[in-house]
Amino acid sequence: MLTKGDISAIRKAVKDETKNLPTKKDVEDIVFNQLSEFHTNMIKPDINILEGKMGKLEIGLQEVKVEMSFLKDEVKGLKADLSTTVSKKEFGQFKRRISKTLPAE
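Predicted structure:
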Protein backbone atom coordinates (compact mmCIF):
# COMPACT_ATOMS: atom_id res chain seq x y z
CA MET A 1 0.00 0.00 0.00
CA LEU A 2 1.10 3.55 -0.78
CA THR A 3 1.67 5.93 2.02
CA LYS A 4 1.40 9.70 1.99
CA GLY A 5 5.18 9.90 1.76
CA ASP A 6 5.22 7.60 -1.28
CA ILE A 7 2.57 9.66 -3.03
CA SER A 8 4.45 12.82 -2.21
CA ALA A 9 7.67 11.36 -3.58
CA ILE A 10 5.92 10.26 -6.79
CA ARG A 11 4.40 13.73 -7.25
CA LYS A 12 7.78 15.34 -6.73
CA ALA A 13 9.42 12.96 -9.22
CA VAL A 14 6.71 13.58 -11.84
CA LYS A 15 6.96 17.34 -11.28
CA ASP A 16 10.75 17.21 -11.70
CA GLU A 17 10.42 15.14 -14.88
CA THR A 18 7.81 17.44 -16.44
CA LYS A 19 9.83 20.62 -15.79
CA ASN A 20 11.84 20.10 -18.98
CA LEU A 21 8.86 19.28 -21.20
CA PRO A 22 7.80 21.99 -23.64
CA THR A 23 4.58 23.82 -22.97
CA LYS A 24 1.78 24.22 -25.50
CA LYS A 25 3.02 27.77 -26.23
CA ASP A 26 6.54 26.46 -26.83
CA VAL A 27 5.22 23.92 -29.34
CA GLU A 28 3.06 26.55 -31.07
CA ASP A 29 6.05 28.90 -31.34
CA ILE A 30 8.23 26.14 -32.80
CA VAL A 31 5.57 25.17 -35.34
CA PHE A 32 4.93 28.81 -36.27
CA ASN A 33 8.63 29.49 -36.77
CA GLN A 34 9.10 26.36 -38.89
CA LEU A 35 6.08 27.14 -41.05
CA SER A 36 7.19 30.76 -41.46
CA GLU A 37 10.67 29.67 -42.50
CA PHE A 38 9.24 27.08 -44.91
CA HIS A 39 6.94 29.58 -46.61
CA THR A 40 9.65 32.23 -46.71
CA ASN A 41 12.02 29.82 -48.46
CA MET A 42 9.21 28.74 -50.76
CA ILE A 43 8.45 32.24 -52.08
CA LYS A 44 11.99 33.67 -51.93
CA PRO A 45 12.88 32.76 -55.56
CA ASP A 46 9.72 34.47 -56.82
CA ILE A 47 10.47 37.55 -54.73
CA ASN A 48 14.00 37.68 -56.15
CA ILE A 49 12.59 37.48 -59.69
CA LEU A 50 10.12 40.29 -58.90
CA GLU A 51 12.88 42.43 -57.42
CA GLY A 52 14.89 42.00 -60.62
CA LYS A 53 11.92 42.95 -62.76
CA MET A 54 11.19 45.97 -60.57
CA GLY A 55 14.79 47.11 -61.02
CA LYS A 56 14.45 46.83 -64.80
CA LEU A 57 11.15 48.74 -64.67
CA GLU A 58 12.73 51.52 -62.65
CA ILE A 59 15.54 51.83 -65.21
CA GLY A 60 12.98 51.85 -68.04
CA LEU A 61 10.90 54.46 -66.25
CA GLN A 62 13.96 56.66 -65.84
CA GLU A 63 14.65 56.35 -69.58
CA VAL A 64 11.05 57.32 -70.35
CA LYS A 65 11.35 60.34 -68.08
CA VAL A 66 14.48 61.45 -69.95
CA GLU A 67 12.73 61.02 -73.30
CA MET A 68 9.71 62.98 -72.02
CA SER A 69 12.04 65.75 -70.94
CA PHE A 70 13.47 65.92 -74.47
CA LEU A 71 9.95 65.99 -75.94
CA LYS A 72 8.88 68.78 -73.60
CA ASP A 73 11.92 70.82 -74.59
CA GLU A 74 11.16 70.19 -78.27
CA VAL A 75 7.53 71.30 -77.85
CA LYS A 76 8.63 74.42 -75.98
CA GLY A 77 11.05 75.21 -78.81
CA LEU A 78 8.36 74.74 -81.44
CA LYS A 79 5.96 76.94 -79.51
CA ALA A 80 8.61 79.64 -79.33
CA ASP A 81 9.23 79.38 -83.07
CA LEU A 82 5.53 79.49 -83.90
CA SER A 83 4.79 82.35 -81.55
CA THR A 84 6.84 84.75 -83.70
CA THR A 85 4.63 84.14 -86.75
CA VAL A 86 1.31 85.87 -87.03
CA SER A 87 -1.95 83.97 -87.05
CA LYS A 88 -3.99 83.55 -90.23
CA LYS A 89 -6.51 86.08 -88.96
CA GLU A 90 -3.83 88.66 -88.22
CA PHE A 91 -2.26 88.04 -91.65
CA GLY A 92 -5.64 88.61 -93.34
CA GLN A 93 -6.16 91.87 -91.48
CA PHE A 94 -2.67 93.04 -92.39
CA LYS A 95 -3.21 92.10 -96.05
CA ARG A 96 -6.47 94.09 -96.18
CA ARG A 97 -4.81 97.15 -94.68
CA ILE A 98 -2.02 97.02 -97.24
CA SER A 99 -4.40 96.50 -100.13
CA LYS A 100 -6.37 99.61 -99.01
CA THR A 101 -3.27 101.78 -98.86
CA LEU A 102 -1.62 100.62 -102.11
CA PRO A 103 -3.17 101.66 -105.38
CA ALA A 104 -4.43 98.83 -107.58
CA GLU A 105 -2.37 98.34 -110.72
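Summary: The first helix runs from residue 4 to 18.
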